Q: What sequence folds into this?
């Protein structure tokens, strides 16, 4: 059979490529071992050894692909006049044989573009594109697509049989690369972790991935369009293409919550990139533990850009001259500090450049100098007391406890937490800072009782963004200190030291210690790391104040902003992409692209959810599906007393059908614990994936809050009480809100195969 022959052909090539990869690893290990025991004769040799060791360890890390397939595709170009066309195998990393002849090209290399971009209309010079299915060291199958030359002729092998690959695909003229491989990938059971799509990237996705580095790229994409995967693959592509720049400047990937970051954390390492920082917005704000939760109204207000002005005003109220005389002991005398002494000093300090804490020193120096001059005029010139120079006298005054207390009253040294705590705990300060900006009701929303210590405060996600804003106004409170970094920094991660002899192992440990910077500057809370490129996923849910946190981390103006306004679910969500860009203020004209094709979400689910999307956002249309799942979403409305049994039955049904896939029950966040208990009482092992002691999203059955479901995917989903979800943020007798409907739309579009709805109350009109 032709198919068997092609599998055998690719198996032979795979064996050859794996042998070459083993040789490359062996060379890297030899380089590492030789550097570890090299004889050093001088400082130059030490530096050279450091570089060689670092290079070898980095190379070993790049060559570690685990159980991922080495390559997944092949492209054959049209025959030339003088012979057959070129052939390239496309894989996760570049592999060459012992003579340095290329065997596999990296998927990010320019020559690999045709693998993703070629279509029947634009073949890009290809005669054939082959998708190769590999598990471990075995080729399981191949799928060939043939392209016509300029004369409309196909270069088919004599005995080639073209198998149909459109099972499960919809008719509609969409140009899909490797439809069989795509269907196989989409039909595979979910694992609870996002996998890379490097083998099945489609043309519209590849164009986004390979977009130039400079400027802001805005990607709008509905459910299942692969926008998260595209964003992560773009980060890997940029690191590959602009490595010299981005390894120095850094790449940051920002996700909506820790659960989402756990879901995506394996993607970049599987693509050979481990030097990327993953964080939430709150995670970028150091030394702030988010333990509290704001009301809907407070969250919306705290995310409003007006809060930047409120904080600036609040700080100004802390820069205040005295209202009454204060006495400062100097030597055997008393110097009186008058309000007029401090009024002009404070006013001049406000006009100085720099932040609040930096200007404090100038205030202290000027005030101490004035007091020293007054003391000198009174007690030294008439010889009533001896004293040193004015500078020494000023230093003496600044060192007194009374002067330090006085300076703290006039121009206090503050942290972001201090400023926010004092502001929200003092209604008078709130009214002064919000005058003309905030209504009385809004001021009341921000007020809260003062805590005994900062550690007692249950900071919220919105508070973290405000603290970051305050830190910029305040600046560092202290000078950087030096510290010794411990050895446990991961430089020998993946190296099996026990496999080496004692002298090599000891030398490697010594070398690792040398490679670690032994002294580094400890950053103050108000200082932070900036990045050469920032990838933001689910950006539609970020408030203006959170976007300002991102903007401060932007070093070069290079960002990839990914999201879907149809899935904006937070109280403080930005109203539109234009409002997002207004806050970010791109340095050059941004580029917007739309992902219009849904690969993950089947037609049945998208059709079922479409009325909910249109009711929530009249200007948005759902993406076009490419596949069908062969089922119709199930809607069950039961009596309240029947709900526990009906829930257990529905979950059992979905687990049995999609096994060994993953099932999620999605419910209003406040009911997650209740639903977990109902399922466990019914004999079903359900987990809250936020629980650190659980398997997380890798569990067979999870219960997820609708507000935190963005970006996740499951084989089957049971959405509980859609009416409750659709009422999110409702006031009075409102039955649905636009944000609630968008949250419901997110919940219903998580499955790749099956969707069930279970309710005891009235269904939203869009589901009837």
A:
């Amino acid at each position: 059979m032709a198919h068997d022959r092609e599998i055998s052909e690719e198996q032979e090539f795979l064996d050859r490529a794996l042998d070459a990869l083993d040789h490359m690893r062996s060379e890297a290990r030899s380089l590492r071992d030789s550097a570890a025991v090299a004889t050093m004769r001088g400082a130059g040799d030490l530096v050279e050894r450091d570089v060689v060791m670092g290079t070898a360890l980095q190379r070993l890390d790049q060559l570690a692909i685990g159980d991922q397939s080495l390559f997944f595709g092949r492209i054959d170009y049209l025959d030339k006049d003088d012979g057959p066309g070129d052939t390239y195998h496309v894989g996760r990393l570049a592999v060459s044989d012992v003579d340095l002849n290329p065997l596999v090209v990296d998927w990010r290399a320019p020559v690999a573009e045709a693998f993703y971009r070629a279509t029947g209309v634009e073949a890009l010079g290809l005669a054939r594109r082959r998708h190769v299915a590999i598990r471990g060291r075995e080729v399981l199958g191949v799928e060939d697509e043939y392209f016509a030359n300029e004369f409309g002729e196909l270069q088919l092998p004599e005995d080639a049989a073209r198998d149909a690959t459109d099972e499960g695909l919809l008719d509609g003229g969409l140009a899909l690369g490797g439809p069989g491989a795509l269907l196989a990938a989409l039909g595979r059971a979910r694992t609870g972790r996002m996998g890379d799509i490097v083998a099945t990237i489609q043309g519209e996705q590849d164009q986004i991935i390979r977009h130039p580095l400079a400027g802001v790229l805005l990607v709008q994409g509905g459910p299942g369009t692969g926008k998260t995967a595209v964003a992560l693959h773009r980060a890997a592509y940029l690191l590959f293409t602009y490595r010299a720049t981005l390894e120095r400047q850094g790449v940051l990937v920002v996700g909506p919550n820790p659960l989402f970051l756990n879901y995506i954390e394996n993607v970049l390492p599987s693509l050979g990139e481990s030097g990327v920082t993953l964080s939430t917005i709150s995670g970028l704000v150091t030394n702030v533990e988010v333990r509290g939760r704001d009301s809907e109204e407070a969250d919306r207000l705290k995310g409003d850009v007006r809060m930047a002005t409120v904080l600036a005003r609040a700080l100004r109220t802390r820069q205040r001259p005295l209202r009454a005389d204060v006495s400062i002991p100097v030597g055997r005398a008393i110097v009186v500090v008058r309000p007029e002494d401090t009024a002009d000093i404070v006013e001049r300090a406000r006009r100085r450049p720099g932040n609040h804490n930096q200007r404090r020193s100038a205030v202290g120096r000027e005030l101490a100098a004035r007091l020293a001059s007054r003391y000198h005029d009174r007690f030294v010139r008439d010889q009533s007391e001896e004293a040193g120079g004015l500078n020494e006298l000023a230093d003496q005054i600044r060192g007194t406890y009374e002067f330090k207390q006085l300076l703290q009253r006039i121009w206090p040294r503050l942290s972001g937490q201090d400023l926010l705590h004092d502001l929200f705990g003092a209604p008078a300060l709130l009214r002064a800072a919000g005058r003309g900006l905030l209504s009385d009701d809004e001021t009341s929303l921000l007020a809260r009782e003062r805590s005994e210590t900062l550690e007692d405060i249950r900071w919220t996600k919105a508070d973290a963004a405000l603290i970051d804003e305050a830190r910029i106004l305040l600046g560092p409170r202290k000078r950087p200190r030096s510290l010794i970094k411990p050895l446990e920094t991961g430089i020998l991660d993946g190296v099996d030291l026990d496999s080496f002899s004692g002298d090599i192992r000891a030398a490697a440990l010594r070398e690792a210690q040398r490679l670690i910077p032994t002294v580094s500057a400890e950053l103050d809370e108000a200082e932070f790391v900036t990045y050469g490129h920032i990838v933001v996923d689910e950006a539609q849910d970020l408030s203006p104040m959170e976007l300002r946190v991102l903007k401060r981390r932007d070093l070069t103006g290079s960002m990839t902003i990914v999201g879907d306004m149809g899935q904006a679910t937070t109280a403080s969500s930005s109203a539109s992409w234009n409002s997002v860009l207004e806050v970010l203020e791109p340095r050059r004209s941004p580029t917007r692209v739309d992902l219009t094709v849904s690969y993950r979400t089947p037609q049945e689910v998208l059709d079922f959810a479409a009325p909910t999307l249109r009711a929530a956002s009249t200007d948005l249309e759902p993406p076009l599906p490419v596949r069908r799942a062969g089922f119709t979403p199930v809607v069950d409305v039961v009596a309240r007393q029947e709900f526990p049994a009906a829930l257990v039955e529905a979950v059992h049904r979905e687990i049995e059908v999609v096994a060994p896939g993953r099932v999620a029950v999605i419910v209003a966040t406040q009911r997650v614990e209740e639903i977990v208990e109902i399922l466990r009482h019914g004999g079903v092992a359900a987990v809250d994936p936020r629980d650190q002691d659980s398997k997380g999203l890798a569990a067979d059955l999870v219960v997820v809050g609708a507000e935190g479901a963005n970006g996740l995917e499951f084989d089957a989903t049971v959405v509980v009480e859609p009416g409750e979800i659709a009422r999110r943020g409702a006031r009075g007798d409102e039955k649905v809100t636009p944000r609630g409907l968008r949250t419901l739309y997110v919940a219903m579009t998580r499955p790749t195969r099956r969707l069930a709805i279970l309710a005891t109350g009235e269904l939203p009109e869009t589901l009837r």
Remarks:
- Residues 299-447+461-471 form one domain.
- The chain has four domains: 2-163, 203-286+528-597, 299-447+461-471, 603-767.
- The chain is about 40% helix and 15% strand.
